[in-house]
Amino acid sequence: MLSVDFSFAERFVSGEQIKSIYDEVFQAHKKIHEDKVFEPIGWLDLPKKYDKKVVDEIIIEAQNIRKNCDVFIVIGIGGSYLGARAAIEFLHSNNYNLLENTPKIFFVGNSISSDELYEIMQICKNKSVCINVISKSGTTTEPAIAFRFFRDFLESVYGKSGAKERIYCTTDSGSNLKKLADEMGYKTFIIPQNIGGRYSVLSPVGLFPMAVTGIDVKKVLGGALNALTDYSIYGENLNDCYKYAAIRNLFYRQGKVTEIMVGYHPKMHYFTEWWKQLFGESEGKNGRGIFPASAIFSTDLHSLGQYIQQGLRNLFETVINVKKTNNDLIISESQNNADGLNYLSGKSVNFVNQKALEATLLAHTNGGVPNIVLNLDSFSEENFGYLVYFFEKACAVSACLLGVNPFNQPGVENYKKEMFKLLGKPNF
Amino acid sequence: MLSVDFSFAERFVSGEQIKSIYDEVFQAHKKIHEDKVFEPIGWLDLPKKYDKKVVDEIIIEAQNIRKNCDVFIVIGIGGSYLGARAAIEFLHSNNYNLLENTPKIFFVGNSISSDELYEIMQICKNKSVCINVISKSGTTTEPAIAFRFFRDFLESVYGKSGAKERIYCTTDSGSNLKKLADEMGYKTFIIPQNIGGRYSVLSPVGLFPMAVTGIDVKKVLGGALNALTDYSIYGENLNDCYKYAAIRNLFYRQGKVTEIMVGYHPKMHYFTEWWKQLFGESEGKNGRGIFPASAIFSTDLHSLGQYIQQGLRNLFETVINVKKTNNDLIISESQNNADGLNYLSGKSVNFVNQKALEATLLAHTNGGVPNIVLNLDSFSEENFGYLVYFFEKACAVSACLLGVNPFNQPGVENYKKEMFKLLGKPNF
Questions:
Q1: Which residue of chain B comes nearest to A332, CA vs CA?
Q2: Which residues in chain A have their CB less than 8 angstroms from residue B334's CB?
Q3: Predicted ipTM?
Q4: What is the pTM assigned to this prediction?
């Protein structure tokens, strides 16, 4: 499914250097698989041990929504929306809402922007609307604010009894939101307790919105299961997932402290956003961590390209190369050839995109920026699931190599505490 | 219009340190204003010296398009689309195309994604379509490919004679595209020769698409003119623009090599993208430069927030605080208060957003990340123009302080050369 090309990275780290870190990788592997040093670790076996009844239920409810709703509102922040949004754009399109798909899907409650809330409520007018509020606690400020507005909106249109048929809660079993849902009669999906937010895309958190857009979530889980199998074994040769973790850690020790995750299609933008949370929250602590940045090429070759080619040499890139597009197009012949493009007549656009990718690998590595290339054949559900698990596992191992806890995020509380004080929240 | 708060930065640089760089700032000011060491410098006086007849023509043509077109396609990459897109989202919305505005606006030719081209062409079916191809040369690969497809599309629907009434070219006076336009009878807007791509937003490159969405471009230029006036003088106290350049350069010398441009509204995302090109291409050369990153808060406080709070201490942030939103909303009271949010009942969403901003300034500076805050009262045309000019000027001065040419981008050619070789382009 996934093949990783390390050749553009191995110009910057020797085989000896990679070998020198083998034992640390093994210790990380043991910490995760045997010693269970860090919690929550439920994501590790999730593709094998997920509750099949819950997934079937997700699929049935999603089909109902697809039949009955024009607009599906997903309320959540951070890990509660990034995975689903990444999947929907990767597997459909960044133009999903404009391509006359039903239901249209909007992500709110991931900012405190009144304009955003107002506009999405405008769009919902005279439409059949369902909402999925995703919050482990139900008390996170951003989604809680959005949920108040959209619940009021639904109740004003459908009444309390009509609204309750249109509200789906994805939450922890003992949460305030779960209690509210039980009291009001909202349908609920429970997030397994041993799964953290940024590792939750393969739980109901990500699967339900995916299913609402018609994604075959069993195929996504199947892809992840293949990755689980491929990356569970520690052998004499590092598997590709562990090797990625090892090499990026060696780069860090060389002073390459920023990693740019690169895609070659606009529909991959939110995958890179999901990745940024996964690695940023897992690694960025104790004064350490690789800074996660992202780019879409060739778009950003005309923006960040100059810096990457010739700026400060503290960067490396990880490139996701999806080789086949859904709709390829052939470049036509032009009579006057004013654009000088006739040498490409008869070639496909995706062929040119592939050559841009190959060329950029050469240019950037020649400029002193190592590249790791993840090759996938197509934008399939299996490949999405596989890629997700690849990065989840690589992230856990990477954080262990860095000497930090991959699964906590103590620093996220700091702005919240200051905000609660300023807002006069009781007990702050 | 703009007031800059340096207090969260001055905990990290002393008044003495700022003074120590005064002379370098003065040298930079002289290089730009008097010695004209670097070219092209046409952006410097543009808000004062722009061709008023051209702007009037832009407004008239834009009104025609607003009357007659459902869809307006902007073909361009890098500086040929980022400024216009930044303006349209900043002044309207990131949801512009969904809010039943006419014409809808799509940006293509900024990638080599066949799916993207295919999808936008699908959306154009049975719509009245006009296109604006923006390319200094007319031979840049990405927009040239897109233009072939959209020209063929228009000609297949309207015939050659109908199509020519719907094609607008923004290009250099002597370019291949200009020649083609003259031959075919396309309407043309000329890009003044002494203005580079990333400094072109206040030229027809940015103004025409803005005007098509109903933005008052004269107000944008008026705002820029105010900034030009405010930031042209070198006095005993640095003006805010020069002080921003000075302080960010001092941070760089302290090892703070990544700057995160932060907005608090989803509609500011493309402004940060425009800024990333401006600074990345201007500074990232000769093995130097501040890496330009971006974030939208509070969204990304649940993604990059952990890293910023507690990761590697090589960051600083520049925060754009737009205080007033277009549509503020009041948070309602909830009977059961399951979300614990009733302490906010009666408060507005934007009030909470402001407190999140203030809280984050405290949390991040306490965590060792300096913050510079640019305060604006609202999302107005004047403020957009002012902000654009603030950053253009700051960027030129910053690059001079860094000892690099602010206006060239030699590294952007590297991937192109490799690509042309791989594609078998004649003479490569």
A1: B148
A2: 148
A3: 0.98
A4: 0.98
